[in-house]
Amino acid sequence: EEDEEEEEDDGSGVRVTPALLKATTGEFSLESILLLRLRGRGIAHLGCLADCSNLEWLDLSDNAIAGLAPLATLRALAVLNLAGNRVASVEPLRGCRSLRQLNLAGNRLRSLRQLRCLQGLRHLESLRLRDPLGNLGNPLCAAPTYRTALAAMLPGLKAIDGQRVAGRGSELFRLCRELDAVLDADAVPAAPAEPPQPWVQAGFWEPRPPRRSAVLEEATRQLGQALRECRELGRRADDSIAQAQRVLGRRHHGNFGF
């Protein structure tokens, strides 16, 4: 097996700085950055990226990154895309305890031994080392059985290189494969099929009778009584207004001496 190696910092390439991060995200505080996309920026040095302590989603694909040391403190990081870089050691990622999805396609990993540091990442579900669509891979992908060995080394993985190795998807694949094997075997006379049955119970679509409610009935009774009282009050008010108008009319006609 090859020894782990990491390119030395030669001072070339773009360095991640607070100014770069603030200009990219619009955030004033680096601790406020949750999602960061730095794809294809010519980045070679991660610089102050460790100060983004609450970062959850990070895309560093298509850069010139070799050293990952600043990522070691990102405890909340869940999704990391490092495709198309110069990574030869992922040792710092052992500190990314929340990591769920990791894309390392198109880097310089030469042996599975370099991935043993990921065994402590209990939440890691998806690991990509090869991407045929982007023509990206790692030297270790030349071994035809690397996926099987990787699945054995990291049993918590549900997907390797985008293909499911565990979970509901793989179970469906297994069932389909078994079904194909049965269909390819000699046909066996099938038992007579049962008549189709409705998928809902009889009467499901029939309107249900309204439910009687003592509370609703009492509320209806009180509302009706209130309406009757309002109508009675309105009638009395009309009578009082008419009577007052008659009285005022008589007084007006009898005041000619003033």
UniProtKB/TrEMBL annotation:
Gene3D superfamilies: Ribonuclease Inhibitor. One of its GO terms (cellular component) is cytoplasm. Keywords: Leucine-rich repeat, Repeat. It comes from the Eukaryota. InterPro entries: Leu-rich_rpt (IPR001611), LRR_dom_sf (IPR032675). GO terms for biological process: outer dynein arm assembly. The keyword Lyase does not apply. This is LRC61 protein.
